[in-house]
Every structure is written in structure tokens, then in C-alpha cells.
Amino acid sequence: MILLYATPLSGNAHKVRMALALLGLPWTEQPTDAAARGSDAFAAINPMRQIPVYAEGALCLRDSQAILAYLAARHRPGEWDGEGAEERGAIALWLSHAANEIANGPAALRLARRFGAAIAEDQAQAVTARFLPVIEAHLAQHRWLVGDRMTIADLAASPYLALAGEADIDLADWPAIGEWTRRIAALPGFPAMPGWPGS
User: Fold this and answer.
1) For residue 199, is pLDDT > 80?
2) What is the C-alpha to C-alpha distance for residues 191 and 199, in angstroms, rounded to an integer?
């Protein structure tokens, strides 16, 4: 049985939800709010006290990018995690962007606007302004981030960009990003998420 420690509005948790749903894998979700993450019991599962956490039998994985890499290697090797060195390198690049520029830019702005978190506002705005033109230009030329199909690069990078409206970012200014997030939401089996247009 797969157990996913998550919260309904976490974009990082939704990355894993998307992968599980698109793979057709059943899972049980364990709601894990801030109070639960502060407990010693949760720290024993994930010493970083963050979600998501993926548990299956003796396996326990933290970090959404790591979980996506595991699911791809186990269930869609090559198709989801890259065919050959070039695709694997390109996928790793977008996973890095998801964990860095997206997390420290649009995701941080959403945290502040949606949940009232204290962030380094100027830094988050600067990172966002630097990154959005990069991914917009790429998606203006490509339907997917890597290759001719969806990969874990798309799953990793999309949630906090799809939820950009909650960060006061107007995706009308970034039409290629908007089309891409709606394309992902249109995939058969896509799990709906509040705030994700088209889901």
C-alpha cells in the first residue's frame, strides 16, 4: 500500500499526486498539517519535517523531485525519466529549476499571498522575473519541457506555475505557460487541484 503524507493545497504534494494518478496507482493520503509536521513522530519519518513523504512497505522517500524520480524509474523508465543521456540531463535541469527558481520565486510568492507566510519578497520577485521569461520562451517552442511527451520534468515544474494566480502572477502575460498547464490538466486521470485552471 502506498501512503502519501500531504496537505490538499501543497503544490509539492500535488506533483506526487499527479504521478500516482497518471500511473493508475492507488494510494492512501495521510493529512499532515503544520502541527503534525512538528511532532516527534513525523520527524522520525522525515527529519526535515516537510511534505510530501512517500511510504510503500519498507521504502520511505521525502522530497517531491526524489519521489518523482523513483516513480519514473520504477514504472515508466525511459518514458518519464529520459531516453538517453541528453534527455536525462535536460530533465535534471528542470527538476533543479523546480527545486530552486520555482520554489524560491512563484512558490514563495504564493506562500506569502495565499498563506500569509513571511518571505524575502524582493528576492522572490527578482527570481520570478528572471525565470518566467526563460520557461515561457522554451514552452513557446515546445509542447513539453523535454522531448515529445510528458516527463517528470513537467510534473515537477508545473504546479506552482499553474497556481501562479494565487501568487498575483497573471498567466495571461505568459500564454505558453498557461497553455502548458492546461495541457497537463487535460491529461486522462489528472487529479483536480483547487486553483489550477482547467482542472
Assistant:
1) no
2) 7
